[in-house]
Design a protein that fits this description.
Low-confidence stretches: none
Shape: globular
Strand content: 5-15%
Structural class: alpha/beta
Number of domains: 2
Helix content: 40-55%
CATH topology of the largest domain: Aspartate Aminotransferase, domain 2
Strand order of the largest sheet: 2-8-7-6-5-3-4
Length: 384
């Protein structure tokens, strides 16, 4: 059976050249980068090079790059490490459609008595930049966290407008953090234009290894460590760094940024083809989020609703037939609860359980699309 993988927003396959580099690093590095002997110095040199390459790809200074265990840790370090500081006691402003790691960090702040304010989204999952800026000014929050692109429906937020609006508040402006995990390699990541103080990324979303995250932290910005121990990663992430994985992640970031224009254009074309084939085959399907031609949609992401069919049941049946997709976020795919993103968009609980996310990758072919639609048609007809 030919299997088709359309769940790249959950994770992407390790790129061949990244895998080769990873194995080379595993074979060639035996030292701890904190050790002063030869093996340790070689590991430190590889770590420093990975930081330089990552910073260059992101267009930031190398001392603004912190390596973590993944996107979730990067988000938690940014939010909990800044919003709970006494000088940021105004609390956090975020949206109701953020990834669960942001919402979980927000809940942790609220449990400590730190104010948390949540802004709603419209039926396309967009936040209103004006409302963000006005609410930040009214509440005096110390931190705003808005994702660059939604992991379920693919909505791209107007971060430049948000950042510019917050910047107009002068010295009293709150910090701006963005969960850019789904953005890197798919849309231009313009941290300067966004006026971002912090941004979170994850290597396995762009062909890198699992277990490596990146936090961009603006130079001079003080963040409180969540863990304690050694002085690694500027004291923010104690513990011996996984140098082979970090080095492989740096290569994945470089390749994703370099290839983004052509890869994104191809994925957008493939997504359009997938949508047209689905609607030709299943005319009552509904596209969730921005329109298929909208530039406010990630080029690789389709979230669809199929006449009230339960998304989890649909995903299980599709898997048996050879199509790998998801019902919303991979982090919550086993949950019995409806998608919080679709609920935030004004969908009913029943409708919020019926979303099917199809997310394409750089190697998704036209044949994959044809096969996926054939499987989807067969399964949907059987379920109905």
């Amino acid at each position: 059976m030919k299997r088709v993988y359309l769940d790249h927003n959950a994770t992407t396959p390790l790129r061949a050249e990244v895998r080769a580099h990873f194995l080379e690093m595993l074979d060639g590095l035996a030292g701890n980068p904190s050790s002063v002997h030869g093996a340790g110095r070689r590991a430190r040199a590889a770590l420093d090079e990975a930081r330089e390459r990552t910073a260059a790809a992101l267009g930031v200074h190398e001392d603004e790059v912190v390596f973590t265990s993944g996107g979730t840790e990067s988000v938690n370090l940014a939010i909990l490490g800044s919003a709970r500081r006494p000088d940021r006691a105004g609390g956090l402003l975020t949206s109701t459609a953020e990834h669960s790691c942001v919402l979980g960090a927000a809940d942790a702040l609220a449990a400590r008595g730190i104010p948390v304010h949540r802004i709603g989204v419209d039926r396309q999952c967009r936040v209103d930049p004006g409302e963000i800026v006005a609410t930040a000014a009214r509440t005096g929050v110390g931190l705003v966290s808005i994702m660059a692109a939604n992991n379920e429906v693919g909505t791209i937020q107007a971060l430049e407008a948000i950042g510019t609006g917050l910047d107009s508040q002068g010295r009293e402006r709150p910090l701006l953090h963005t969960d850019a995990v789904q953005a890197l390699g798919r849309i231009p990541v313009q941290l300067g234009d966004w006026k971002a103080d912090m941004a979170s990324f994850s290597a396995h979303k762009l062909g890198g290894p699992l277990g490596v995250g990146i936090l961009f932290r603006r130079r001079g910005l003080q963040v409180e460590a969540l863990m304690h121990g050694g002085g690694q990663e500027g004291g923010l992430r104690p513990g011996s760094e996984n140098v082979p994985a970090i080095s492989a992640a740096a290569l994945a970031v470089e390749l994703a940024v370099r290839e983004r224009p052509s890869v994104a254009a191809t994925m957008r074309e493939q997504s359009l083809c997938l949508w047209h084939e689905i609607t030709d085959t299943l005319p009552d399907v509904e596209l969730l989020g921005p329109g298929i031609d909208s530039q406010a949609r990630l080029p690789n992401t389709l979230d669809i609703a199929l006449g009230g069919i339960d998304g989890r049941m649909l995903v299980a049946r599709l898997d048996l037939e050879g199509l790998e997709a998801s019902a919303g976020s991979a982090c919550a795919s086993g949950s019995l609860e409806p998608s919080h993103v679709l609920l935030a968009m004004g969908r009913s609980a029943e409708s919020a359980r019926s979303g099917l996310r199809l997310s394409l990758g750089r190697e998704t072919s036209r044949e994959d699309i044809h096969t996926a639609v054939e499987i989807l048609k067969r399964v949907v007809e059987d379920l109905r």
